[in-house]
């Protein structure tokens, strides 16, 4: 018997408010950390918003959401992952009352999703901490952010009660170890932070995540809450046990996050890491109690894998999705240097499933590539993105194999179903979409939408529940 995608498998796409909405200061929205990062991870934040920051306009989804969701519906989406911009609801983050206009926007967006029967999957914090919390409080280093975040979580969970069932707390929660400003609102270079400061911020996020999970279950027992992990399989560069152990050691730095979200306590290897590095955290009894509120499912992003070597001089270090590593000589890389590894997705799925025995959800996967707009297609202009189709096909074949291996998987949301502003480089030219958006890196363009070749390809994958995938 051939095992394939289960009935009811959720198919769709994923975005983040700061990468698509634009309207950065409309209807009472406050600034978020992304509004002062015109060059992404490459350069330090600016004082205030600058005209060269593509994030400020995004792809104008704030005004075009109905058109965009209609296109998602045409592809057959049954789920859509988006984030609620925290600074739209609480402009400064520490406000006591929410901004009604911000709440109303997501009501309108949910109306559109309901029209097409698309299940919302909502990220509460997707690299868009209110700027005021970063600048006046020091970001997640400050314990007060737990209260501000849980107020935000409770507000939106109550407001959208019965309309949103699937919630994610922090996007790529482990990324704070690598990029403290983007992931933790901590405006200091990683090298200037002590390990204790960094892990105290991690701890605050973990407690906040657990409390948001508790609130979600109190507001509606039908709510399902997931953590969200940046998944990067790590291979030893050679079969030498020291390289294998180095790969395991690096992997454990990330496993910590899933282990705490699923098991409700710090694992032994993390406690040892704290001892070895002189890390002394403030962890209260109330914190330990809070961590007991564990997640219902585990979600993750997957783009690439890396290799690790015990000898720091071995191999060349490569770039990647926040987490870098040693270049794996057996793999090819994307134009942005991310090593493409479909089998790594099967490995991660099996690994996470065996480790946590919680339903999994792939909430990001895709290829950032340069596209060329040509004549043709249903809209007069299109992109022949066979490279994107190949990338997604090969990854989904491995997902199917993992399901046959027995992995419990709820769904798959491709990253950036519509071209959006890239997170790491703040470019439009790094495109992920099934839908092309006419906007260039210099900000020019009409913002018109065009279906790419992959649009129809993904529509067929969904319509056949994966049956049209090619081995
Ligand atoms: C993930 C982020 C996303 C997204 C993606 C692709 O780490 O969660 O926000 O942007 O990476 O990265 P980029 O946009 O830099 O290509």
Automatic annotation (TrEMBL):
The active site is at residue 364. Keywords: Glycosidase, Hydrolase. It comes from the Bacteria. One of its GO terms (cellular component) is cytosol. It is an enzyme of class 3 (hydrolase). One of its GO terms (biological process) is carbohydrate catabolic process. InterPro entries: GH, GH_1_N_CS, Glyco_hydro_1, Glyco_hydro_1_AS. It holds the Pfam family Glyco_hydro_1. One of its GO terms (molecular function) is 6-phospho-beta-glucosidase activity. The keyword Hydrolase applies. Its EC number is 3.2.1.86. Belongs to the glycosyl hydrolase 1 family. This is 6-phospho-beta-glucosidase. It comes from Corynebacterium marinum DSM 44953.
């Amino acid at each position: 018997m051939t095992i394939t995608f289960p009935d009811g498998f959720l198919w769709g796409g994923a975005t983040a408010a700061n990468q698509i909405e634009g309207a950065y200061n409309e209807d009472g929205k406050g600034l978020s950390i992304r509004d002062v990062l015109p060059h992404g991870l490459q350069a330090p934040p600016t004082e205030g918003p600058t005209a060269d920051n593509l994030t400020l306009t995004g792809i104008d989804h704030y005004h075009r959401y109905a058109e965009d969701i209609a296109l998602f519906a045409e592809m057959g989406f049954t789920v859509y992952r988006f984030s609620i911009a925290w600074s739209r609801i609480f402009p400064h983050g520490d406000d006591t009352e929410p901004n009604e206009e911000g709440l109303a926007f997501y009501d309108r967006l949910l109306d559109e999703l309901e029209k097409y029967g698309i299940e919302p999957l909502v990220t509460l914090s997707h690299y868009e901490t209110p700027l005021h919390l970063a600048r006046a409080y020091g970001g997640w280093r400050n314990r007060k952010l737990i209260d501000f975040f849980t107020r935000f979580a409770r507000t939106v969970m109550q407001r959208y009660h019965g309309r949103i069932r699937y919630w994610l707390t922090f996007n790529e929660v482990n990324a704070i170890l690598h990029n403290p400003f983007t992931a933790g609102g901590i405006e200091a270079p990683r090298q200037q932070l002590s390990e204790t400061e960094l892990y105290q911020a991690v701890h605050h996020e973990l407690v906040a995540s657990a409390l948001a999970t508790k609130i979600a279950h109190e507001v509606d027992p039908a709510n399902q809450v997931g953590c969200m992990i940046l998944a990067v399989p790590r291979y030893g560069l050679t079969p030498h046990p020291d390289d294998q152990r180095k790969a395991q050691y690096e992997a454990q730095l990330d496993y910590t996050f899933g282990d705490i979200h699923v098991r409700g306590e710090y694992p032994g290897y993390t406690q040892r890491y704290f001892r070895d590095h002189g890390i002394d955290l403030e962890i209260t009894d109330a914190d330990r109690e809070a961590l007991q509120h564990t997640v219902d499912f585990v979600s993750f992003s997957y783009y690439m894998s890396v290799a690790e070597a015990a000898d720091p001089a071995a191999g060349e270090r490569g770039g990647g999705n926040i987490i870098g590593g040693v270049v794996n000589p057996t793999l090819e890389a994307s134009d942005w240097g991310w090593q493409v590894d479909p089998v790594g997705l099967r490995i991660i799925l099996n690994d996470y499933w065996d480790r946590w025995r919680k339903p999994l959800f792939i909430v990001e996967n895709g290829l950032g590539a340069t596209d060329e707009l040509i004549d043709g297609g249903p809209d007069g202009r299109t992109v022949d993105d066979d490279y994107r189709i190949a990338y997604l096909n090969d990854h989904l074949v491995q997902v199917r194999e993992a399901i046959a291996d027995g992995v419990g998987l709820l769904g798959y949301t491709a990253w950036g179903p519509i071209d959006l502003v890239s997170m790491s480089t703040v470019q439009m030219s790094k495109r992920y979409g099934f839908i092309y958006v006419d906007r260039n890196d210099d900000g020019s363009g009409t913002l018109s939408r065009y279906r790419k070749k992959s649009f129809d390809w993904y529509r067929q994958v969904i319509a056949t529940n994966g049956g049209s995938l090619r081995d």
